[in-house]
Amino acid sequence: MRIGLISDTHIPEACEHLPPRVFEVFRGVDLVMHAGDVYLNRVLDELAEIAPVIAALGNGDEGLDGHQFRLAPDERVRIAHLVEVETLRIGLAHALPTPDETSEAVFRNAMHAHFGGPVDVLVLGHSHLEGVAQFGPTLVVNPGSATLPRNLVGVPGTVGILDVAPGGSFSVEIIKLD
């Protein structure tokens, strides 16, 4: 299974539409996971033309922190999603405290609260900083922002691809949209 990872699109605050390169990179994926701060439901609809979409509810999607947009209720959007592919447990949320920000115990408690226990891969957004980090048995992936990378305007953003092979082995790639 091939999964497209995207986050923090902030449309129309960042720009009017997703960069066309997103659709090129995601061509052929089986699922798109959006890690929140979508803002407009049409972004999910556009991504759904590629593959089924699930999204985490971001702080900006709720109109918090001074954001003027509020995502309309949508069955594809939840605080957190748990997807099981092969033997792999994949969690999706907008922001969870990771051990580099807080303690291992807080990280474990957050995973338990959101997913009922640890996950193998945790997909997060919020920071607009792309990256992949291992915390114990969990690989944390932040695809960055497709439209506001590192909170910068007018520079190519990033997305991710998670490939899951039969048996549960997997690989992750962060892709710059230039």
SSE inventory with pairings:
Elements: E1 2-6, H1 20-25, E2 31-34, H2 41-47, E3 53-56, E4 77-78, E5 80-85, E6 88-93, H3 104-115, E7 121-123, E8 131-135, E9 138-142, E10 158-164, E11 170-176
Parallel strand pairs: 1-2, 2-3, 3-4, 6-7, 7-9
Antiparallel strand pairs: 1-10, 5-6, 8-9, 10-11
The outline comes out as globular
Instruction: Please indicate the percent range of residues in DSSP E strands (runs of 2 or more).
Output: 25-35%
Cα-based radius of gyration, to the nearest Å: 15 Å
The largest β sheet comes out as: 6 strands, mixed
Assigned CATH architecture: 4-Layer Sandwich
Q: Name the CATH superfamily assignment.
A: Metallo-dependent phosphatases
- What's the number of structural domains? 1
**Element-by-element helix/strand order:** EHEHEEEEHEEEEE
| CATH class term | Alpha Beta
What is the CATH topology?
Purple Acid Phosphatase, chain A, domain 2
Low-pLDDT parts are none
What average pLDDT do the residues reach? 95
Q: Which class best fits the helix and strand makeup?
A: alpha/beta
The tally of helices reads 3
